Amino acid sequence: MEAKNTETTTAPKKRNPVFFIILAALVIGGGWFGIAKYQHGLHHEDTDDAQVSGDINLVIPRVAGYVSEIKVQDNQQVKKGDTLLILDDRDYAVKLQEAEAALTVSRSNLENAKAATNAARANIATYRASIGTADAQIEAAKVNVWRATQDYERYSNLIKDHSITQQQYEQALAAKQTSEKQLAVLEEQKKQAAQQTNAVSVQSNATSQQVGIAEATIKQKQVDVDAAKLNLSYTVITAPENGLVSKVNIQTGQYVQAGQALFSIVHSRNVWVVANFKETQLDKMKEGQKVVIKADAYDGHKFQAIVSSFSPATGSMFALLPPDNASGNFVKVVQRLPVKIEFTDPADSLVRKLRPGMNVVVDVHLD
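RE: above sequence
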């Protein structure tokens, strides 16, 4: 009995072959997975640091004012040119009326200046005609003076010999004096006409300058009217493009400033992907390579796309406070470069459902 018990305790145990099968399967599976990942890494670059992006237009008023009416709601589809909101336009309407009134006054001043200029020019023509008439009369008076002087001199000689009467002599003297006075009067009239012509010429030049000033003023007032009309048109804010309205966080009666961002319009039909690849992944990447995109929102669907372009700088350089490695201690951090990826079929129904900001996984085919 003792011999049998000793023989039983020293007999080797048989191991279950399932353990070896599982161990071999794990080793083979792990090796296959590692080789597959290695082979995939040779021909692909992927990242989950990627988001859908799109055109987002800010709705910004060009003039300040109180909101009188809001025409849209949150998430509403709008088309280019649709009215989004209306500002109170009464102040701008008054300014337009003021500008138009100032333009009317300027035009009236221009007409008055032109009328004064035309009258001055007509007076100049009249005075110049008077000067011409005076010149002719002066020439005739000079002839009369010469003739009367000749007669007087003859009668002076004859009166000495008592060949003529005293009356005849006095008549010759009177005729000579009268002709001389007439000549003097005509010369004085010509002088006055010349002075008046000069004065009217100066007035004409002044009124001509006033016409130029009035014309320049009209141009300025017309610009004021155009600017007032433009500002009045800005009180109606329209959609710059087709898209979806974001949250409208303004209320009727609220005062908004010119340049203040009110809300946004997202172009839902024009989206792309911005993938932030590590700088160590960019060695073999280039524009035009095929890309497979998986969106978290539509698990299992593969979107086809291509590499469109590379950012001119890393994302950190566009930060509010870009890094300055020359100051303080330096710690090397792998940088990421934004890469723009465009869908090859933007009309795909699922592509149109993508919204800016959604997370996606990007797989770039390097071959």
